[in-house]
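B., you asked whether I could sanity-check this one before it goes into the benchmark set. Here's the sequence:
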Amino acid sequence: MFSLFLNCSALHAVVVGRLILVESIVRGLMFLAGVLGNNWLAVRSFPTQRSSVRTNEVLFLNLALSNLITNYLVDLPDTVADFAGRWFLGETYCGIFRFCADLSETSSIFTTLFISVFWHQKLVGSLKRGGSPVQMDSLCLVACLLAGSWTVAVVFSIPHFFFVKVEASNESSEDCIDVFPNKAAKQTYEIIYLTLANAVPVRLLLRWLRAPEPQPGGTDRTPEGGPRPSQAPAKPTMASSSQVRAAKSVVGVASVFLVCWLTHLLLRITNSVHTSSLVVEVASYIAASYTCIIPYIFLHGVKKLHCSCKR
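And here's what the prediction gave me:
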């Protein structure tokens, strides 16, 4: 009987060890995909001339920076800790780790929202006004919005410097966790943070997505001297093809954004009511998956996913 118990314990240890190994490998692959995608987004968005900086490029660079903070300062230590089987970076970096996680997450959410609104205005609003400039196509406005989003991100991330500790779950395992003074303080923080940094951006994105999708060929209004309904429709132009491609990218970005952050929001709410290490782990995977998927969708939308050697 005792030998059977030892065999079961050994089998359980082997299974758990293999699961941890698989988890570590998956997180490592997500880290590599995120680093490659976000670095490529930054390189391809960097303006070639200082005088030709565009709104789109500033937004993409800010998104890449936000995601790279996650990749290098959150995902990389987390991946190494998974392979090591415990948190070994100390309590000081534990605070930095938690700070960077919420900082980059909040900035990434708001930047994705700004890019989606900007593209929405270019594809829908601009077409309705015959190609006239849109409100978001202003470096001054975008700089103010990004400064505001970073300020909000910093304010909500600062508590992680003071309310964290490295907790030993057993003799060989340690983890970096948030520890608030009491349950009421934790729930208050979570409610305010999740409302302003998650629920509000998701609600705004849903609101802007209700507008009709632009159709290839421009506006519905027939210009004076243009083709009549009885005439054959004009062939799609290169511009209309780019608009359709960008519109599909907006839909793809919005879909990933809503699926990831709605799920993440629900998990964070669940964890604020009933603390669970499993829920926290799943939420971190969802956040990591977002940062490694979203740059490729944006690169595809602006036709910069490939590397051309032609001059």
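One thing to flag: The helical segments are 2-45, 55-84, 90-128, 139-157, 183-208, 238-273, 277-301. Otherwise nothing jumped out at me.
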